[in-house]
Specification:
The structure is a homotetramer. By secondary structure, the first copy, chain A, is of the alpha/beta class. Chain A is 19% helix and 35% strand. The first copy, chain A, folds into two domains: 4-142, 2,3-Dihydroxybiphenyl 1,2-Dioxygenase, domain 1 (Roll), CATH 3.10.180.10; 149-304, 2,3-Dihydroxybiphenyl 1,2-Dioxygenase, domain 1, CATH 3.10.180.10. The first copy, chain A, has a nine-stranded mixed sheet with strand order 14-15-16-13-9-12-11-10-17. The interface between A and B is large, with 46 and 46 residues. Chains A, B, C, D: Its cofactor is Fe(2+).
Chain lengths: 307, 307, 307, 307
């Protein structure tokens, strides 16, 4: 209720820009919306209305540069920055226009080592349907996998407990689900929401800071997840796990890797929690069922490979 | 962002209480959670966690008594009551315990003649799954139609413009979609959200105040909507329209009547808007497509029958 | 078990050839496979392997010219012709090559006035997937509505009882379902299968001979039926009924009209009967439920409009 | 076209009869239809109309005793027995009544070591829906996983080439798909149909005779396959692979083990071939994609564990 709306953008490092453009545009089916003078390529999901949500840049190492949450307006942005500072978190401002079609961004580093941003302004370019008498979908909805939106990120880093405190106490998120470590007390993984999505962001305790487990894209149905898997195979995309259902969040999912080894998820479903809901807790013994509900299996690659 | 969470309860008048209990419990598949000394029967959807969301009482006339939105906490409740009063709306307090498992309710009458409530407290009884290592569903999920939640109401009454102002300016809702009358200006129908549901409440301009068009229940998939239609037929429930897709909201739906003639909806889908989204507008010429997307047809019964 | 395989082709009359080509190719999403010197345009469904299944020609009046069932081989063709003749039905031979990519056809007229054909040879052109290591679908599967196959026809004409006798006694079909007229005895509608499809052909008693109620195309899922309805609306196709489920056959369906007023169906589901199954009978009182299972309604247009 | 209809029954050995009854009745959701004086328990799928299709008996070793195909009538049975004998296959007759509700069975041993039967008579007990004005499903359709029918078996044994010859030349099956061994010539796996199901039976070359890879049960949708996986996990059933799609047959599937280690499949989809279709061939390099289309992976357990 603090005015943090949703994960609005994420910047990802890739090895080969043009190969990645082809992958994200034609296989994942994002819409390319622009390129900037820093060499970045901007994408959005077809049903998103803001100019961009997924940005890639060429680099030697894969992984995540930063991610940003959109907030309601500039007053909210200023208020949240003040709250962060008061809490003891240093912030800086990225100028408007540094990212295409995007206003000023308040940037700070999380205890897990991830660079997070808040911003209030990104130009609305629409979802390709008109705002007058729109049809329910269009050709872009069927170009490649074609998720409807960037849904959330799962990030690996140290001290997720400190992250949790910031998201709960300053940013107004609530803890939807969590996994306890073998000791039955330590929170090894956290799913947090600032809305009634089952997760807007998630963190897993991990020694190395600033790592990306996956960016997640929402599909409209279990049948569309199957179609996503078909398209992955047709394009020889490496799949990590799925199709399957998570016990955690109930989401139905496939995880795969982009050409640079960044994992991404195409998923649907899960329930819609509210801030007055009690947190769901998974203990270590049931974590296999939480991860892969039908198979009740811990997948080594899924748990250990990050970028 | 004012702390209004969701439509939390609605009270509906029925002709024959026991026949209605059988209908709502065994055909619609709600979970009966209690009865009070006023003769009311309380239900919830299987995946809702609060004690009740749908309450029926026996009466000579069908229709809606009142509906309530849950807010974040008692501070929010007090703040919103003050805001309503300052706006010029009189409120009264229904005492805690007047409804089973429910705290104090702030009650007021909308310009359209509907009695609306806000409340902060309703006992959590859970969804029948544990909060530790829950499965994704249980037997209750397949008893009758078994919607996951009370989703929204569509109400008919005069002066929806005045309602809109209150919902937008005091309660923090935003206008997701609207239908313009033949003159191209008058807003004949409004879909409003306090979350990123495509509608938490909707209003249609109508001379008679306080009328109910339908209460809506969320299904998990288009296949579950088909199953809902099957169960309606097996139980000789009168169907109004559907299965079909609305152009408005993109929702996929069936409308039917309870034994007293109160219309209800079982639907799935639609998109998830945010407060920064531009409103979608349907003009009168495209309203048939907005109402029944494949058939592009205005259904007389759907537009005119209310309780 | 006589070697009659499936409805293999149907020839339909349309008013405007090029408008109809655009409709069948881009809206219904058939694959155009050729045109002949008689001005006919040949189509197939994407997953059919023979050269053509749906043929249109320009004419002053809409309707059906003829339909053909493919049989196992030329021996079967000869045998069935002999059987028909012995039964008392006159046959003629249409020469190989009269239709593109199609061998000799044995032609005869049914008591209901429809011209039926049997043939053994039509060139296999494949479904656009290779026969070595094929993917499950391809771009053609998503071009327009894109049904997987021509599934069956429903035809109106007098004396369906005589048709039934021929299909059962000579052609080896079995009666899957039937509707009895109000007298509880007269078979007003018949669904017949030569396979374990729930219908390969169907007949309804009607005074005028040789009429077409609809040609039916198979979709892969209920979600694809919804998508079909979306595409119909996007292209302003006139829909008759649906989406809905039939009680009869359990099929889930939409009926609509081509630009010339020929009705077609896009459907999925139904069960798979075998010749040892007892026939399902619908009496007149339950026919509304048989026709539109959720709505339990007789649709006037559906019952009376034919071409 | 020889009158062989479908796989009608299979007899499976289990370790603990009552535990297995609970599993097959309450988890897989078959309908128990009887027990005989040999201690066998008979089941059918809810939508099957004959008395039984899946029979279990207690034994020290898991695996398959025999399977039987239903044929059109006793004349067909006699004819096929004569054809088998003429081909050089010895047959014996199991008397009517040896299996509950089942007529005389013609029994013979396949080159792969499996005991196969043909039979013409099994009492119709119906699918729990009436033959007059039936609904599309009933409570049994949602008890446990609740497949609609026993669909096919995949069997392991030596000399599948000899099996193929019998099925093609005597029993009238056709080869739908096949996998070639690394040499590009040897047919390592065969999918055969006597109908237009994508498989009525399948064989894999294997040194040990008479082994069972799996019995397969048909589900109605991809969503029902997901539900099957949920129910498996709720009941701690060991899952082998899935949910996933096969490239081979396009079927969408989960494989799991019964309490005795007999693998079974719950699947949906695939296409519907006809005898005039060219066989689909998978070469060894593409077999991973044929087995698990999205993951393009050979699963060791799936390929090697049989009972």
């Amino acid at each position: 209720m603090t005015g943090v709306l949703r994960p609005g953008h994420v910047q990802i490092r890739v090895f080969d820009l043009e190969e990645s453009v082809r992958f994200y545009r034609d296989v994942l089916g994002l819409v390319e919306t622009g390129r900037d003078d820093k060499g970045r390529v901007y994408f959005k999901c077809w049903d998103e209305r803001d100019h961009n949500s997924y940005i890639i840049r060429q680099a030697e190492e894969a992984g995540i540069d930063f991610f940003g949450f959109k907030v309601l307006n500039v007053e909210t942005l200023d208020k949240l920055e003040a709250d962060l500072n008061e809490y003891g978190i240093e912030t800086s401002r990225m100028p408007a226009g540094d990212m295409l079609a995007t206003g000023e961004r308040v940037r700070f580093t999380l205890p897990t080592g991830h660079i997070m941003e808040l911003y209030a302004e990104k130009s609305a370019v629409g979802n390709g349907l008109t705002n007058a008498n729109p049809g329910p979908w269009n050709a872009a909805s069927e170009h490649g996998i074609a998720p409807v939106r960037l849904d959330h990120m799962l990030l690996y880093g140290p001290n997720v407990a400190a992250n949790k405190k910031i998201f709960e106490e300053v940013l107004g998120f609530f803890l939807v689900e969590r996994v306890l470590a073998e000791d039955g007390e330590f929170e090894a993984a956290l799913w947090l929401s600032c809305s009634h999505k089952v997760h807007d962001i998630a963190f897993v305790e991990h020694p190395e800071p600033g790592k990306l487990h996956h960016c997640s894209f929402l599909m409209e149905s279990w049948e569309k997840v199957l179609r996503a898997g078909d398209i992955m195979s047709m394009n020889e995309v490496s799949v990590d796990i799925g199709p399957t259902r998570h016990g955690i969040t109930r989401g139905c999912t496939i995880y795969a890797w982009d050409p640079s080894g960044n994992r991404f998820e195409t998923f649907m479903g899960g329930y819609q929690p509210y801030p007055d809901y009690e947190t769901i807790t998974w203990d270590w013994d049931h974590f296999p069922q939480g991860l892969d509900y039908p198979q009740r299996k811990l997948h080594e690659s899924f748990l250990t490979i990050v970028t």
